[in-house]
């Protein structure tokens, strides 16, 4: 078992290949997701045209994070950019041929970036100047748009002579997007604010860009770890899930950090600075099957940032699980079902609450966000067996996270029932029975199964639960803390010791020690 828990790099690499062989520009969880770039020619000028360029992110859960998008293209003729509003070309290029009026950009292949918030009003247009940050459609359609205006010279001056720009490139930020050729589409119709007048663009063309994780990076960018109340095993992220090539520049622990971070901040190095872990992922998503109620069950989700150099703004998490069609309650996160195929409805989008946890802070004590969800059991399909309670797919910020191999999932002890009955006939409690209060397995170390029936509070007050759950505990020893005693059942002959430990996601875990 130990060997499968810590999958060797070879196995991890093999899984990686399996997982990524299916990755293409087509995303089954978001089949219509794309970024559309629309050019509306608003007027002709003596030597060209003025266009408003609108980028709309139709992707349900993949946003464009700071430092934002860059858009590039290649002019079909000898066009120049006279001026821009709401964005700028990163390089002016060679404008030496011009004597009086100097263009904003003379490059054959201009690269354009958004302006930062707070630029003067005369440089702004609607939907500009957000530092290139664009929300995903699922999070906030009103913020999923970015626009700028460009005044083009030395181009055609009618819809017959204009040649469309070619070879569009988009980074969002970093690679991953492939853009189609520009295509003339029916001119956009604008409706005036009072709704009583319609105008239309002189000419409109569209470019569609789609994302492929394979193009974006060689390795996954996040991984998943799993645990459950019914098995004390914590299934970690696969070893080297995100590649181990950066292992020589990771940071061992928070304590050694300050000197290293200073060093890197001085060198203005924007590359990730990861905390050293076996998985070497910047992001870990932990899924804990927490409680079992009669008609409901409860899972806890914790996302941890291991990158000391990055705050994830407007992060998104997508989970595919067959029971997400019956989400009853989600704590601390926003939740939206994404229904790519209406019959399935098994995929949901989680994202942070504004001003509370919409930023996943850099690695360290604040570098995590957490939520709990309550799901209604569908009696026909619900089970804790065979890892059913764990997610099928997890995406962080639109990138699929590497799951542990299925044979390492914590599984339901098959012998729990009989063991309990023989050892504790008077406490014939079993976690999935209605009358259950609480139960535990007698082993060298067993796990306390906290019973949902007794558990009503929101808190993690384990001692309190146990008292209510009537566990024959005489002593609670909190890991690293002074023992506190609690005599509950005077009939018991054996002394049990219960250790409380903090799990790797801060989850409280109870172990029964014989
Ligand atoms: C881009 O996305 C929009 C919205 O989902 C969709 O209507 C359109 O067909 C997509 N375009 C392409 C080329 O996939
Ligand atoms: C062009 O892009 C806009 C979004 O900017 C979209 O609404 C429109 O449907 C697209 N047209 C075509 C023909 O794809
Ligand atoms: C150009 O404009 C004319 C008149 O507005 C229109 O009839 C024609 O279809 C347009 N051609 C293209 C290629 O858009
Ligand atoms: C556009 O890209 C294609 C292939 O990527 C290349 O063959 C072509 O030369 C490029 N066109 C221009 C104008 O750069
Ligand atoms: C992350 O945000 C915090 C608080 O806004 C800030 O102090 C910190 O410098 C940021 N870290 C990075 C790497 O940008
Ligand atoms: C999908 O599931 C959500 C709960 O997560 C529910 O509110 C919604 O009605 C479901 N939609 C369909 C089409 O079944
Ligand atoms: C918990 O699950 C692991 C598999 O990850 C398994 O090896 C172990 O036997 C299970 N524990 C119990 C108590 O059944
Ligand atoms: C138990 C329960 O409420 N099941 C419902 C889950 O959601 C589907 C549709 O999304 C319903 O058809 C089930 O009745």
UniProtKB/TrEMBL annotation:
Single Gene Ontology BP annotation: cellulose microfibril organization
Signal sequence region: 1-25
Key words of the record: Glycoprotein, GPI-anchor, Lipoprotein, Membrane, Signal
UniProt-annotated location(s): Cell membrane
Name of the protein in its database record: COBRA C-terminal domain-containing protein
Classification of source organism: Eukaryota, Viridiplantae, Streptophyta, Embryophyta, Tracheophyta
Protein's UniProt keywords contain Transmembrane helix: no
Family annotation (Pfam families): COB_C, COBRA
GO CC annotation, single: side of membrane
All copies of domain COBRA C-terminal, residue ranges: 221-410
Membrane topology: Lipid-anchor; GPI-anchor
Family: Belongs to the COBRA family.
Organism: Morus notabilis
Highest taxon, organism lineage: Eukaryota
UniProt keyword Signal, yes or no: yes
InterPro entries in alphabetical order: COB_C, COBRA_pln
